[in-house]
Backbone:
């Protein structure tokens, strides 16, 4: 038993690597702080644009969204980080990770917002337009707010996913939390840093995961 | 423009590497299939066990689904590969990746099935029980068929998302498609391999992405 | 079944409810119901919403759990300890306000499911029997239709066939027509009349006063969790003595 604790929960090692892990956590949060709002904004814009009566625009946007949903985010990241330099576009680890995460994240948010907007009854738009509001105003003040509320659980769930995905940045040696833990583990030949990182992730996300479950089950109970 | 073609679409250059790329692709497919085939039934099993309402077991189940939805997939893969050996469980990279992904998928699948079970109208249970069917019979013949039907769209969506995680196996050196194309790219200093990889990923996942889009339309108009 | 004599049951009593109390938490909704239904009788329970009539009905097959009291069906105490509830439920048919047909099965499938899994009939035997009961409710030609393809009235008739096919000792009807469009109510009531003519013991909770007047052998008036009065349709619905009942009858005259 003490063998187990010494290996996985070694407090001495934890004390040593804690600053490293903290810096990694900081970087994880920084990545998410940029990628999440960007993804949400772009996703919302795409979903709203699909509501315009332009078949061509909708086809283009759907193609964009489906393509980005089909390509794994790590592939995007490797492509951006190792491939683009050949065109003279040399992005640092952080911007490359943000770009990959945003491209992927925005496509998922676009789908969620689209479902939300479609769930708002046509009558709402009709009422808004009949009072003289423009398409944009009725979208901004009537449709989008209701649509967003309808898909709130999915929005929160996807935000958590995006936060979790920041860990792929470790593959291009960006020293976010996972990478920091891997480095520490490699240096000290002890998995405690990894376990600590896992616990930090768990503590960060678990409240939201629970919240999402509660929200989803609550909406479901009402319709039963 | 020529630069783009030279660096990203130099297909003749790939000729020698084609067998390796194909092998990598097959491994990716294998991992995705295994993840889904293990993860989804496991999730259904857990949801059914949860339905029988054995209190201590339920607490364990809720911890399981919260834990595996809170931790990033890459962290779990790394833990499975680097930390488990300390327990005497040495998994090869392939197995470690598949196990981690399957377990994560099972957690998400359980929540989806659980929501489905709660969405079935209580009257269905009453009708079944009132004709003398036992709890298990009612569950098997009346409730579960309806649950599976409602669950298909969110399940396919989630299964695609997690199958894309097979690329994370490249971090622990599984010779899957991303890993292979990444290596080729650094060997020949030409990112065409990455393009080929991306196109193959598209070929694999895009049909499923389009399928889920079609499913959503189909479910929006109930059979009548 | 002489052991049941202590509550004064005689041979012809099919359903006996004795001292039924039901509470939800601290709120008591049934304050000691005593009711006896004889074999072949059609008893209709009426009363305003919240009177507890549906709750009382649903206690009979324990879809609601009685808080205290005894319920005996066909000589067996359904509220007893260690009772085989599933076997007892086979003998009690129920028709629901929300119909509750299985959407993923055809009309035939809805009726055959219990016949095959509870009674143990073979596929052929079950289909034959199911078809017989579907014909009885006038829907033999719709055997392969799915519920979504049927009107509300047709769905409820399938619901009746589903319950009847198990050949129960008593049929419980919980506001069977309340959720239906007015034009569709008649076809369901007609089937219920035919059921009565076949000699089935029936307990019906309904707002359809005309049905109660014409078909019931006995009408039970419930109010706020107790039985205010019971008697023939003439006594309760046509010339009620009790002023409260008179008020109810005049209000619901359509």
Residues:
């Amino acid at each position: 038993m003490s063998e187990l604790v010494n290996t996985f929960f070694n407090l001495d090692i934890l004390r040593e690597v804690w600053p490293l892990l903290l810096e990694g956590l900081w970087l994880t949060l920084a990545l998410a702080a940029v990628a999440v709002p960007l993804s949400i904004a772009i996703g919302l814009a795409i979903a709203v644009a699909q509501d315009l009566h332009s078949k061509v625009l909708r086809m283009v946007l759907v193609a964009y969204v489906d393509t980005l949903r089909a390509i794994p985010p790590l592939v995007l990241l490797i492509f951006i980080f190792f491939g683009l330099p050949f065109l003279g576009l040399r992005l640092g680890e952080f911007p490359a990770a943000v770009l990959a995460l945003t491209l992927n994240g925005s496509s998922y948010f676009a789908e969620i917002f689209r479902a939300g907007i479609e769930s708002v009854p046509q009558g709402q738009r009709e009422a808004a337009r009949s009072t003289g509001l423009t398409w944009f105003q009725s979208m901004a003040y009537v449709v989008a707010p209701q649509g967003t509320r309808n898909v709130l659980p999915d929005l929160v769930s996807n935000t958590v996913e995006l936060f979790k995905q920041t860990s792929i940045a470790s593959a291009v040696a960006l020293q976010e939390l996972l990478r920091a833990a891997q480095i520490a583990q490699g240096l000290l030949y002890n998995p405690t840093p990894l376990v600590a990182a896992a616990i930090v992730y768990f503590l960060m996300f678990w409240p939201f995961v629970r919240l999402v479950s509660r929200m989803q089950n609550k909406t479901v109970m009402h319709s039963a | 423009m020529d630069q783009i073609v030279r660096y990203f679409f130099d297909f003749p250059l790939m000729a020698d590497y084609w067998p390796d790329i194909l092998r990598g692709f097959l491994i990716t497919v294998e991992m995705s299939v295994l993840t889904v085939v293990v993860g989804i039934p496991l999730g259904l099993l857990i949801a059914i066990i949860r339905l029988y309402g054995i209190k201590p077991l339920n607490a364990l189940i809720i911890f399981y689904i919260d834990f595996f939805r809170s931790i990033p997939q890459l962290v779990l893969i790394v833990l499975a590969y680097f930390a488990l050996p300390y327990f005497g469980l040495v998994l090869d990279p392939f197995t470690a990746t598949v196990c981690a992904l399957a377990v994560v998928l099972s957690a998400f699948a359980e929540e989806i099935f659980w929501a489905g079970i709660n969405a079935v109208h209580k009257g269905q249970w009453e009708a079944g029980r009132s004709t003398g069917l036992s709890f298990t019979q009612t569950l098997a013949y009346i409730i579960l068929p309806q649950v599976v039907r409602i669950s298909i769209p969110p399940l396919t969506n989630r299964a695609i998302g997690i199958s894309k995680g097979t690329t994370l196996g490249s971090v622990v050196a599984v010779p899957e498609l991303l890993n292979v194309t990444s290596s080729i790219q650094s060997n020949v200093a030409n990112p065409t391999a990455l393009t080929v990889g991306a196109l193959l990923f598209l070929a694999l996942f895009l049909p499923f992405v389009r399928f889920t889009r079609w499913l959503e339309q189909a479910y929006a108009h109930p059979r009548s | 079944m002489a052991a049941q004599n202590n509550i004064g049951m005689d041979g012809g009593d099919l359903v006996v409810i004795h001292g039924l109390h039901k509470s939800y938490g601290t709120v008591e909704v049934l304050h000691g119901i005593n009711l006896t239904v004889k074999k072949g009788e059609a008893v209709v329970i009426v009363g305003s919403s919240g009177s507890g009539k549906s709750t009382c009905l649903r206690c009979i097959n324990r879809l609601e759990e009685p808080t205290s009291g005894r319920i005996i069906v066909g000589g067996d105490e359904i509220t007893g300890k260690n009772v085989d509830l599933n076997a007892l439920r086979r003998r009690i048919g129920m028709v629901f306000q929300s119909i509750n047909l299985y959407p993923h099965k055809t009309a035939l499938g809805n009726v055959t499911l219990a016949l095959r899994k509870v009674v143990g009939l073979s596929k052929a035997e079950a289909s034959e029997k199911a078809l017989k009961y579907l014909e009885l409710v006038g829907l033999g030609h719709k055997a392969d239709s799915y519920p979504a393809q049927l009107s509300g009235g047709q769905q409820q008739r399938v619901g009746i066939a589903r319950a009847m096919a198990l050949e129960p000792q008593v049929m419980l009807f919980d506001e069977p027509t309340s959720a239906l469009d007015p034009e569709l109510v008649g076809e369901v009531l007609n089937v219920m009349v035919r059921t009565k003519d076949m000699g089935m013991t029936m307990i019906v909770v309904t707002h359809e006063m005309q049905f109660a007047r014409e078909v019931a052998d006995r009408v039970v008036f419930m109010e706020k969790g107790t039985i205010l009065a019971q008697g023939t349709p003439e006594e309760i619905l046509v010339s009620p003595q009790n002023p409260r009942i008179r008020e109810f009858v005049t209000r619901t005259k359509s």
Observations:
- The CA atoms of residues 13 and 92 of chain C lie 15 Å apart.
- The first strand of chain C starts at residue 13 and ends at 24.
- Residues 1-8 of chain C have pLDDT under 50 and may be disordered.
